Amino acid sequence: MSEARSPLSGDFLLNDMGDYFCRTASLWAYLTESLLDGNILEDATVRAHERSRTDTGMSDLSNVARVDVDISRLRKIRDMSLEFSHQVRSTWRPQTPMTTSPPGLLAASISPFCDATMSTKSMSVSSDGDQRSLKTRKLLPDGHLQLQADVGHRSDDSDDSDEDLFPDIDMEALRQRGKGNYSCPKAFHCTKGGVDKEGNLIIFDRNSSFAQHCNKHRKPWRCDIPGCPNPPKKRRFARRDGLERHKTTVKHYAVA
Fold it and tell me: Who has greater pLDDT, 121 or 187?
């Protein structure tokens, strides 16, 4: 009979190190969200305006501007810490089920399809008033992908498909009417509407809107007409009407 492994053996130590890094990354994300309480930020802004009004009669707004810049930077740090938590957990435990986070963790900034700590509320979808749990999802390996540059001729209607990067999203469930808190599984790497101009994650609060966004990546509709002049990577479409428009407006050459 083989001897039991010592708790101090190398594999146990490596496992503990990985788990420790995951927990500290999640704790950092929770800490930044907890400290950046909306009331605290609002109070800081109000105090800055009051000081400006008292000291200069609102003629000098430099202090107000400085506070606004600081708040923007802090929010950026919060978003970065949440994204870092995603990346650490998906790297160490890419297929570990999602766990419940400490109260107050910003669910809106975490994809429900990520293997990350998140609130129980963000793990459910309402349909006709009922809450139904979604299946556990894993974070897609964005960090290991070479993302293509966004060039001018690319569009949402016809483009390279990311369907193979979205294997765990239950599109059938998203067809049902309901609400939830969703963000793109590609997180801050999304170039198709998942990030706003300020660099913040877009939150999709309806099943239908999130499904439409996923289709921008998946390109589920494909032109199957023989003689299609488009290259193979340009024969996929995000919308059915885009495919139909392509079929009716683009000349397809008959294949003998």
Answer: 187
Residue 192's identity, in one-letter code, is K
| Backbone dihedral region for residue 227 (phi beyond 0: left; psi -120 to 50: alpha; all else: beta) | left
Tens-digit pLDDT profile for residues 199-236: 888 888 888 888 888 888 888 888 888 888 887 777 88
C-alpha 164/C-alpha 184 separation (Å) is: 15
C-alpha torsion sign, points 200, 91, 117, 26: negative
pLDDT digits (tens, 9 = 90+) for 80-98: 888 888 888 888 877 554 4
CA 226, CA 228: separation in Å to the nearest integer? 6
- Kind of pairing between the strands at 204-206 and 179-182: antiparallel
- Alpha-carbon distance of 202 to 198, in angstroms, equals 10
Question: Please, which residues have CB within 8 angstroms of residue 73's CB and are 6 or more apart in sequence?
Answer: none
Number of C-beta neighbours around residue 179 at 10 A: 16
DSSP SS3 for 156:
coil
Q: Are 189 and 147 in contact (CB under 8 A)?
A: yes
DSSP run (H or E) holding 64: helix 62-92
Residues 64, 52 contacting (CB under 8 angstroms): yes
Write the CA distances from 112 to 31, 38, 125, 185, 191, integer angstroms: 20, 23, 10, 8, 19
Q: Please give the Cα distance from 179 to 185 (Å, whole number).
A: 17
Residue pLDDT, tens place only, 86-131: 888 888 877 554 443 443 333 333 333 333 333 333 333 333 434 3
Per-residue b or e along 135-150, where b marks 16 or more CB atoms closer than 10 Å to that residue's CB: eebbbbebeeeeeeee
